[in-house]
């Protein structure tokens, strides 16, 4: 007996947008963490 499967949907425009937004958020978080690390380094190395 054969089974009838619906074809897998291709990545629609909404999935592309979601992927772009997710990548943007990840990059923003990484940039924020790098900025915080830079501020901590600056304060730690500040001549007193």
Automatic annotation (TrEMBL):
Keywords for this protein: Membrane, Transmembrane, Transmembrane helix
Superkingdom in the source lineage: Bacteria
Transmembrane segments: 20-44
InterPro entries assigned: MmpA_put (IPR059130)
Name of protein: Uncharacterized protein
Organism (species): Streptomyces violarus
Source lineage: Bacteria, Bacillati, Actinomycetota, Actinomycetes, Kitasatosporales
């Amino acid at each position: 007996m054969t089974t009838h499967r619906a074809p897998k949907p291709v990545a629609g425009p909404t999935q592309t947008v979601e992927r772009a937004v997710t990548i943007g958020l990840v990059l923003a978080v990484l940039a924020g963490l790098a900025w915080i690390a830079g501020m901590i380094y600056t304060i730690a190395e500040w001549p007193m």
